[in-house]
Amino acid sequence: MLAILDLSKVNVALPSIEASLDGSPTELQLVVSGYALAFGIALVPSGRLGDMGSRKLMLLLGVALFSGASLIGALAPTPEILLIGRGLQGVGAGMLMPQSIGLIQQLFQGPARGRAFGVFGAAVGISTAFGPPLGGLLIAAGGPDNGWRWLFAMNIPLGIAILVLAWRILPSHQARDTSRRYSLDPVGIALIAVATVALLIPFVTTTGREGDNPARWLWLTLCVLALGAFVAWERRYEGRGKTPVINLGLLRVKSYRHGLIIVSSWFAGLPALLLLVTLFLQQGLGLSAMMAGLSSIPFALTSALSAWYAGRRVERYGRQLIIIGFGLALAGLIATIAVAEFVPRSIVPWAIVATLTLIGAGGGLVMSPNQTLTLSEVPVAQGGVAGSVTQLGQRVGTAVGVAVASSAFYAALNIDDVPTLETYEKAFGLGLLASAGFVVIALITALRAWSAHRGASRRQQTADTISEGIRV
């Protein structure tokens, strides 16, 4: 929650930061995108180091760095100092997140692991949706000059509490694959870092407005080249008897591959949806930042409850929960489009709260079962790296989804010199269609995963029946 809250709560503070520190538009954009970039870069190498050494130590170092960087942000006298703090915060978040997933893999097995990931999914849902209203409340309490500083200062006591509890509770010993000799693979780490940066930059710098630089898409060429070099290097590295930073064999595991696509597509749709709702409620309907943020609270609560429920039922119902969740989410998205188009404007905010509640219930049914099933066939010794790649998929999905949805939204707004409410309704609907497209991709993948699992189960039952017949 500590890491994910800072992806969303700072967005509502940008106007206050601009007024307080006299920040430029580029600096304000970097306050958000710099954190996301540093977060994404740190994920894979941190997961690797946690698997090789101590997940507990890496988590402690990540929380300490995140808390110290939050202090820098809270006291920042200039935009430049704030950007340094945000970058270090991102690195700390990228260090601690893979350890959380790796430790769940390490400490829980069977149904208990599903319940643990249910709590994890609930935490993700709550922190994703509670970021904007929490940011609005702190700014309202602290005032326009100092309220944004409270957003960073609140991390410090939370970080200290986590450090104390983690030091006392988490185990120092962890199982390792003794059949393999681990090595750091610095070349592989560097190549995946370059590929990550080159992939994220064009998307995190996309605002959807006319001032976006078209040349930013050239970064994708570097991404493709870096990924090609990474794959070639990793195969060569493994051929020399060493362990690559990412075991490419993981992508041949169907449950892991399907789960990675599902979570990346879902995170391309969900944060974009929440952003569009905020923009429509504030700019289109004229609600305050706090009221627009509060609209997502029922979403967060239903998401948390359904994630907790699904975590306790995943062993019994498996992928069916994910498919039902996507069905609810798509129904909520379609209902949201209909609300903006046909419902009387005086009750539109309340109707959107109702549709978000439905989407939240579906999202919880997706998150925790998918996390459990994605890592179900991953060796515990590789849990940190495997988890870090799924987290990287979330960050990439978020960047892509927000870029696509916001571009669709602002492209529709730019049709009129002075946008009317009707223009905002059309822009909102177009952006939601883009968001729904990503959810459909995730649903199709979930259906394929369910079909593949059923086929494998039937083949196993047939083989067991034949074996039993031969034995008799």
DSSP strand count: 0
Count of runs of 4 or more consecutive helical residues: 16
The mean pLDDT is 85
Q: Main sheet, how many strands, which sense, barrel?
A: none
Helix content percent band: over 70%
From the alpha carbons, calculate the radius of gyration and give it in angstroms: 22 Å
Helix-strand makeup class? mainly alpha
Q: Which regions have little confidence, pLDDT < 50, spanning 5+ residues?
A: none
Distance linking N and C termini: 55 Å
Global geometry: globular
Beta fraction = under 5%
Helix and strand element order: HHHHHHHHHHHHHHHH
Produce the secondary structure layout.
Blueprint: H1 2-8, H2 14-21, H3 25-52, H4 55-75, H5 79-107, H6 111-153, H7 155-169, H8 186-204, H9 219-239, H10 254-284, H11 289-294, H12 297-317, H13 319-342, H14 348-374, H15 383-413, H16 421-471
How does this structure look, described?
- This protein has helices at 2-8, 14-21, 25-52, 55-75, 79-107, 111-153, 155-169, 186-204, 219-239, 254-284, 289-294, 297-317, 319-342, 348-374, 383-413, 421-471.
- It is mainly α.
- Helix 2 (14-21) runs parallel beside helix 6.
- The longest helix is centred in the last third of the chain and has 51 residues, at 421-471.
- The mean pLDDT is 85.
